[in-house]
Amino acid sequence: GAVVSQHPSRVICKSGTSVKIECRSLDFQATTMFWYRQFPKKSLMLMATSNEGSKATYEQGVEKDKFLINHASLTLSTLTVTSAHPEDSSFYICSARGLLAEPDEQYFGPGTRLTVT
Amino acid sequence: GDSVTQMEGPVTLSEEACLTINCTYTATGYPSLFWYVQYPGEGLQLLLKATKADDKGSNKGFEATYRKETTSFHLEKGSVQVSDSAVYFCALSYNQGGKLIFGQGTELSVKP
What we know:
heterodimer, A: mainly beta, seven-stranded mixed sheet, four-stranded antiparallel sheet, 11 strands, B: mainly beta, six-stranded mixed sheet, 12 strands, globular
């Protein structure tokens, strides 16, 4: 099956700094990538949808200037948490979908645990 | 708005016990319904799906039936194994753009 990787798997950063999380589709071209956030005991919350070569579409309530998403190639999308604060600590998960995939064929990365101190 | 509600976990069962994880949804249209599974340290994987009312999705001994009248999509398995220990997510999608709406997840722990 299709493989999606995320890097890093865990990151600890200080409050006020920025951190970048990468999401890569390893064996297919991902025309669409999704970024989710998961709180403990909570569901995955979709943050934004990014299509290769165009601006990301953010869900209501998600600050686009704080969570910068770039999808510059068909195999890589990045999420940058700018000026991170402790409340940004969470588990961030990406998923990817190819051009010819069925609408429900999304492949998920293993997630990145962000801790802001 | 659309939403998905799952029974709270964790659910702890002995090997070979029967499993039911309840899932109900609220939707304005006619979504497709999914169960995803997340094994420890891995990404979510699609377990099964159903695209219309009365459809039954099945995979690896798990089943779920799309019940429009009760707006439910309960996950069932007749005999669980230790290897089924994971977090299970119910989700819906309108298949437009691939946007998924997830329930909060239910952790299943199967003891030998």
